[in-house]
Design goal:
16 helices; Rossmann fold; binds histidyl-adenosine monophosphate; 2 domains; eight-stranded mixed sheet; BirA Bifunctional Protein, domain 2; five-stranded mixed sheet; alpha+beta
């Protein structure tokens, strides 16, 4: 048997893992600057949480969940997204009783049984933020701006697309208009099944024929009530002030049921069909739906894997040399090992030969490992109470007295 990763999953090899790590560090730092705190929820939850939270007639719940019974015959689901779990935690721990707004972020793997292709996996990572307790448009602007800023920091070009899908009141009216229109169209079986249950979802159908027939469908953005229209206008004005550009798209409905008012996606042209780098919106009713009080909320989740594909494609630049390689042989190895561990304790990144290689081979290794310096413990140098430090970038070599060595190394650039 030849073992491979399960379909739709992937190993992050060291180079990719490094990009991931960089992305995670910048995300957490950006979240901190904007005043968000991390929340970690379990990788699986009770299935009902997603059925209720994400919506019974969404693609996620209908076809994409990894659901299983555990030995106690509970139905559990690997989380397909992070919002419902965050809301569950907020309600379970009554976090809404603390200072408002409550601002949370998360980073972690999500699971969806989708047909794998470039940028679409069955296990993928999301960076998400969720803000609770602020219903005004400035909250929407802050959330959208944070995502925008992250893309800027990563050097990724993205197009922000926005829509408003109104509130339950204006949506109820629009729903009737839409149902009437949809009944007159020839649509796929999946769409027909959804017309009465969840007509907005029909607009999201990926079938080319359906898409063509839905071109003339009435749009929610044309049926907003005044408060919803005002809210959306204020979000746009806020983004204008920050000079964040966006495109309005009345057809952007998003694939999850909990949204109201502002919805948005960050799109790219670089990844073919998988054009959404992230998405989010307002979900003022979800906390209540999942058993909490009425608490307005807004948030997003960004697709880390898709963003990593773009980062890696645009990287190309050579990573600068860093750290030290300790070169020693035979009788000097023992002494050198003491330095190896004591320098590491000081936070210096030091590697050393573990395969009893020759001097020459060790220099080669230092070079292959992209080390900035070689720290050379030769028998003659040691006899003089010295070691040599060679800058592998410039080739310059300096003899340093052992009692000055730590100080000398700590003052070097690029050793930590
Ligand atoms: P979503 O649009 O389902 O929203 O997912 C957000 C992002 O996750 C997508 O735009 C995409 O970049 C990435 N993504 C989704 N599925 C896959 C996949 N199979 N492979 C790779 N990347 C994928 C949500 O999940 C909402 N919880 C967002 C949200 C947070 N709304 C409010 N707060």
């Amino acid at each position: 048997m030849k073992y491979t990763v399960p379909r739709g999953t992937r190993d992050l090899l060291p180079e990719q893992a490094e990009v991931f790590r960089h992305m995670e560090v910048t995300a957490a730092e950006l979240a901190r600057i904007y005043g968000y705190h991390e929340l970690r929820t379990p990788m699986f939850e009770h299935s009902e949480l997603f059925e209720r939270g994400v919506g019974e007639s969404t693609d996620i719940v209908e076809k994409e969940m990894y659901t299983f019974s555990d030995r106690g015959e509970r139905s559990l689901t690997l989380r397909p997204e992070g919002t419902a779990p965050v809301v569950r935690a907020v309600v379970e721990h009554k976090l809404y009783n603390g200072p408002m707004p409550l601002k949370l972020f998360y980073w972690g793997p999500m699971f969806r049984y989708e047909r794998p292709q470039a940028g679409r996996y069955r296990q993928f990572w999301q960076f998400g933020i969720e803000m609770f307790g602020a219903e005004g448009p400035r909250a929407d602007v802050e959330v959208i701006a944070l995502g925008w800023r992250w893309f800027q920091q990563l050097g990724i070009e993205t197009e922000l697309v926005m829509n408003s899908i109104g509130c339950p009141e204006c949506r109820a009216q629009y729903r009737q208009v839409l149902i009437e229109y949809l009944r007159k169209q020839e649509l796929c079986a999946n769409c027909v099944g959804r017309i009465d249950r969840n007509p907005l979802r029909v607009l999201d159908c990926k079938h080319k024929e359906c898409q063509r027939r839905l071109e003339q469908a009435p749009l929610i953005s044309e049926h907003l009530c005044q408060p919803c229209a005002d809210h959306f206008q204020a979000v746009q004005t806020g983004l204008d002030q920050l000079e964040i550009s966006y495109r309005l798209d009345g057809r952007l409905v998003r694939g999850l049921d909990y949204y109201n008012r502002t919805t948005f996606e960050y799109k790219t042209k670089e990844l073919g069909a998988q054009d959404a780098l992230g998405g989010g919106g307002r979900y003022d009713g979800l906390v209540e739906l999942l058993g909490g009080p009425t608490v307005p909320a807004v948030g997003f989740a960004l697709g880390v894997d898709r963003i990593e594909l773009l980062c890696s494609a645009s990287a190309g630049a050579e990573t600068p040399r860093s750290g030290l390689f300790l070169v020693a042989t035979g009788e000097t190895t023992k002494k050198a090992d003491q330095w190896l561990y004591s320098l590491r304790e000081q936070g210096v990144a030091v590697q050393a030969d573990l395969l009893e290689r020759s001097f020459k081979a060790q220099f080669k290794q230092a070079d292959r490992n992209n080390c900035r310096y070689a720290l050379i413990f030769g028998p003659d140098e040691l006899a003089r109470g010295e070691a040599e430090v060679r800058d592998l970038e410039t080739g310059k070599q300096t003899a340093v007295a052992l009692e000055k060595l730590t100080e000398h190394i700590l003052a070097l650039e690029g050793v930590k």
